[in-house]
Specification:
The chain has helices at residues 45-82, 86-108, 113-132; strands at 135-138, 150-156, 166-171, 173-176, 179-182, 184-189. The protein is α+β, with helices and mostly antiparallel strands. The longest helix is centred in the first third of the chain and has 38 residues, at 45-82.
Length: 193
């Protein structure tokens, strides 16, 4: 089934003879059809079914892993946005402490009444802005001691405050939304002396 064709001369360029021979197709099968058969006898149907199940399982696992990764990424991104101001609030808290101490000292001086009223106004504005960003003070005095938001530095007897409750707050604590920025330093009641 081979076709031989040759040209001794290239008609466009007679000085360059070209030999163009069309050979047999190398991809043409010259084998016995019985030898070339591929079918269930060579590869078992059971093996194909097992491979199919394995690949289906792998595809389902990959899809589940990707879905978990997508959900985790969304959750982490939302949390990053929600608590983006955390480090800022953490650095602002000592400044708020200093402001509170300055206000207490100014209140002790009667001659500084106009300064006190100005500082109180600034303090209210600070509280409003912090509240807008989700910063809240941790309630302490008179409340039961909660190690999640309170840090006990002392225990003292008290007949007015029940045992295990906070007698007084030494340093204010803060939370950003539901995350603790700083625990409140408190003195806990040990009950009646």
């Amino acid at each position: 089934m081979s076709t031989q064709q040759s040209f001794s001369e290239n008609p466009e360029h007679p000085e360059n003879p070209v030999d163009t021979t069309i050979q047999d197709n190398p991809f043409e099968a010259h084998t016995d059809p019985k030898e070339a058969s591929f079918g269930p006898s060579d590869v078992g149907i059971d093996q194909i079914q097992a491979d199919l199940e394995r690949f289906r399982d792998l595809a389902l696992r990959s899809q589940a892993d990707f879905e978990n990764y997508r959900k985790r990424s969304i959750r982490e991104r939302e949390e990053a946005v929600r608590f983006a101001n955390f480090s800022f609030v953490e650095k602002l808290v000592p400044i708020l402490d200093s402001f509170e101490l300055g206000l207490v000292a100014a209140r002790a001086n009667e001659a500084a009444a106009p300064i006190v009223s100005g500082m109180e106004m600034v303090g209210r504005q600070l509280d409003e802005v912090l509240h807008q960003f989700g910063v809240e003070g941790v309630e302490a005095t008179g409340r039961p001691f909660d190690p999640n938001v309170h840090e006990a530095v002392a225990q003292e007897p008290s007949s007015e405050v029940p045992e295990g409750s906070v007698v007084r707050q030494l340093r204010k604590g803060y939370k950003l939304k539901d995350r603790l920025v700083r625990a409140a330093l408190v003195v806990v009641s040990g009950g009646p002396a």
